[in-house]
Design brief:
By secondary structure, the protein is mainly β. The chain has 2 helices and 13 strands.
């Protein structure tokens, strides 16, 4: 094996055993099933060397959110079974592949796949569950203003309505043996799976509740 390659492999092995690299790996594992990249920086004058030959883990109770300024307790046993404990203090910067808008999108606007891009974004101060898949069939609207460079979270989006307020709809009532269809009027917007009120003109106007099935159908619920 060429000498330069040997030296390179030795260097990589040494870096992987640096305290920062070990903590970065442990924090990244704690983020699973999300895949993240971690950059750990010890707080000034708090860098600690980890004992060799010990498989450390982050002890419970873990912080609710493993990002930003952290105080962690690492634990691990040596070959004799002796438990070693080590507190570490520092900052964990978290990066992950996410989606962000190309241009600003206002709350209430439709958002299409071509209006977003996937890239590595910082998740250190992420407030919510990031969107990890933006399918081509997405029919979504923004719940709040979406800013370029900021990760889109699940709570930032909602399904676009397929039924609009005052639209004629079919209200279906079923008891597994028979299905009755009534002509009605939607009393508010609704996306598939959402519950909306429906007005039906019988002898008197009656108001029912139902689940939106598609663009014209609402399934009656008790």
């Amino acid at each position: 094996m060429p000498l330069l390659l040997v030296l390179f492999l030795i260097s990589c092995s040494a870096l992987a055993n640096e305290p920062e690299a070990i903590i970065e790996r442990l924090v990244a594992e704690a983020w699973k099933p999300l895949t993240v990249r971690v950059e750990w920086t010890f707080r000034e004058s708090s860098r600690r060397d980890l004992k060799p030959g010990i498989e450390y883990a982050i002890a419970n109770p873990k912080p609710i959110r493993l990002a930003g300024n952290l105080t962690l307790k690492l634990e691990g046993s040596d070959v004799s079974g002796k438990l070693h404990s080590l507190p570490v203090i520092g900052q964990a910067q978290i990066f992950g592949d996410g989606f962000t808008v190309i241009d600003y999108i206002s709350a209430g606007e439709n958002i299409e796949p071509e209006q977003v891009r996937q890239t590595e974004l910082e998740w250190t101060r992420l407030n919510g569950q990031p969107v990890t898949d933006f399918g081509s069939e997405a029919d979504l609207i923004a719940v709040r203003g979406l800013v370029p460079g900021r990760t889109i979270c699940i709570d930032d989006l909602k399904a676009a309505p397929v039924i609009r307020k005052d639209q004629p709809v079919t209200l279906e009532l079923s008891d597994n043996l028979i299905t009755i269809s009534l002509a009605g009027r939607a009393l508010r917007d609704g996306a598939v799976g959402e519950e909306i009120p429906v007005s039906v003109e019988l002898e008197h106007t009656k108001r029912y509740r139902g689940i939106v099935v598609d663009k014209t159908t609402v399934r009656f619920i008790q």
